[in-house]
Amino acid sequence: xxxxxPACCSVFxxxxxxxxxxLTKDLLCRRYWKAHTTSSExxxxxxxxxxxxxxxxxxxxxxxxxxxxxxxxxxxxxxxDKDDTDSASDSEQFALGIDPAGDALGDYDLLNExxxxxxxxxxxxxxxxxxxFVETDEExxxxxxxxxxxxxxxxxxxEGTQAQPDRSAEDDANVRTAQVQREGAxxxxxxxxxxxxxxxxxxxxxxxxxSQNDMYASGIPTANNxxxxxxxxxxxxxxxxxxxxxxxxxxxxxxLQIPEVPEHLGLSFYTADELNEIVDKRLPGLPRFVCHExxxxxxxxxxxxxxxxxxxxxIFGDPxxxxxxxxxxxxxxxxxRKTQRMYHDMHTGRWWWATQEEVECKKPGATIIPIIIxxxxxxxxxxxxxxxxxxxxxxxxxxxxxxxxxxxxTYILLAYLPTTKLERVSNKAARRRMIANLYHACxxxxxxxxxxxxxxxxxVVTGNGTTYRAHPIFACFLGDYPEQILVTLGYxxxxxxxxxxxxxxxxxxxxxxxDLRDLTAILDILDSFDACPEDFxxxxxxxxxxxVIDPFWINLPYTHIFRxxxxxxxxxxxxxxxxxxxxxxxxxxxxAEIDARCxxxxxxxxxxxxxxxxxxxxx
Length: 619
Fold this sequence. Notes:
By secondary structure, this protein is α+β, with helices and mostly antiparallel strands.
């Protein structure tokens, strides 16, 4: 039966626990077992001295031989009536109340007699004994319970050396005020929000058409064949196994090249490349990549991208997302009086509501599809510095609880941008400007269809066949700080969205609060390039932006690039705040105290590691 170390909560076998007690290097375990052994030896000596000085009971004086039933049986300090012991087949097992093979603290072979405290008092049946603390397998449903003792914590090296500041009455009042405010805010979150929908025909369907399943079937030439695009079921089953079970293309090709294997199975493909060609050409799916060449600095760069409108139709028409799509903005409040507004998803924000009002003034009955773009240059190899520059897209109509999960497959690989370093350009400043212009030229080519469809709209179909007049509009850009600076034409070290100075980035005083950059003024500066290139460079320097001639967002309708930048949770929140806070707490309280508090948490098998444990908790 497995045993548990009370200090580190590790599970061992009977022999493994003995080796753990003798060989462990964990300081908490060593201190615990040393104190446990000393206490056990003390209890054993006290028990032997009490036994030697007491009179031996005769069989006539033994309460267990009482036939009248008037005297209770005393077993390990627990008063048990005779009627209670009649139902037990073994008096010792009933008295202990557990399986004799062992308990949560270890096997009984490892326990000394002094480990069990014996109290002699005149308690009645209502007193609590050892059997009341330990459940039997029958009472606990046969499941092993892990009893965790409070581990011994080491004193912090600074403890006692520094005087603790006295808390004044004002500090206590501030703490009580903060607790009251927090309790009031949390109480409001438990209520069902009051929802205000957008008035008018916004987000309303415009008709019905065939479902996506019907459109998928229409794209297959032999739709009546259940094994399409293959002729035989053995082809379909092998292709399904090859694509879902993940064997490599080389392994599949070697399997199919075994003599007479394809002939005996009657397969229509002989290599992995032939299978991929059948899947790509004979089955409908995402749009194919196209290649576009860009000439910059006497160097030809290639950008691979998909049609963004076809990608929008594919995500919007996916039958898996149809029950969850959001078609119009809403305002959520904590109560019916509309005193406090709630923001928890994209359709509850102010941007969608304000943009919907602008679109409704020109073309009523529109359904906005917020386009979310994300990009990040990725290192592919540890040598020769091979990199890739993928661009992904999704739509804001899908709730974030679904959109944020990679397993939901809500993101589509939209493009691969060139990763050239333009090493032939010797001037570093000119090279940086050319790389920035190359990025915006490629992104403009990818997002160019949004310039017209965002205003005029297009017809899209959901997975159940409902038709909407949709307006795909660029809404958000997700990226780390270097990507944000590249998109907003800013300089490294400054804010990507506002005009606050570099030295005041960490301050939050109201008197130094900065507004967002003036988009109208920046657009006027960008438009002045054709009139006077010299003044263009000077105006860009005064505005604090890089001299990019044609940013990709300059002609996108209803787009405010400085409002579309989202916080970088990984670098700015997690690495910038949480890691610093955890390191500060460990330094203040000590690693042993943090480990002891972490061990108090109940075991939850479904919880994810936060990656913030200290040296001891990592064991």
